[in-house]
Design a protein that fits this description.
Low-confidence stretches: 59-63
Strand content: 25-35%
Helix content: 10-25%
Number of helices: 3
Structural class: alpha+beta
Distance between the termini: 44 Å
Strand order of the largest sheet: 2-9-8-7-3
Radius of gyration: 19 Å
């Protein structure tokens, strides 16, 4: 009887942890997105995609997959790569201990967060190139 109770408690604990993880991890694919052209990007975001070399190395798009250019929230987001063995499974943008945004591995980077809005290009290698101006961008509002 004690063994069955212990198995039940462990199973319930695993289920609770899974539900909490699922509840607070938002898959960016299930969020509402807006496709916008380069000309509709905020000027600072557009400039970072097109001319990131003019900024210092600490904010270069080539130095990181996630760039936060909101001066009031520079330390509020963290970037993590989730792996399964030697393979990358997905990315996590962590707002705080409880709120995480899951981004599929197939998304192009860099990811730019500006005023709690995430911008992702529709193709790779847009930084510092003319491709930035012909690319489209997915815009997600990071609520919570």
């Amino acid at each position: 009887m004690k063994r069955q109770l212990l198995i039940f408690q462990i199973g319930a604990g695993v289920l609770i942890v899974y539900l909490i993880w699922s509840f607070w991890t938002f898959n960016i694919e299930s969020s509402q997105k807006k496709i916008i052209p380069y000309d509709s990007l905020p000027p600072l975001v557009a400039d970072m995609f097109r001319h990131s070399k003019k900024y210092d190395d600490s904010t270069s798009l080539l130095a990181s997959s996630l760039l936060i250019i909101d001066s009031t929230n520079n330390n509020s987001y963290k970037f993590k790569t989730v792996t399964t063995g030697p393979w990358t499974d997905h990315y996590l943008i962590v707002k705080n201990r409880w709120i995480k945004y899951e981004v599929p591995y197939s998304k192009a980077f860099p990811f730019i967060i500006y005023h709690d809005q995430l911008y992702i290009p529709d193709r790779f290698n847009v930084a510092n190139s003319e491709s930035a101006e012909i690319a489209s961008y997915e815009k997600y509002v990071l609520t919570w």
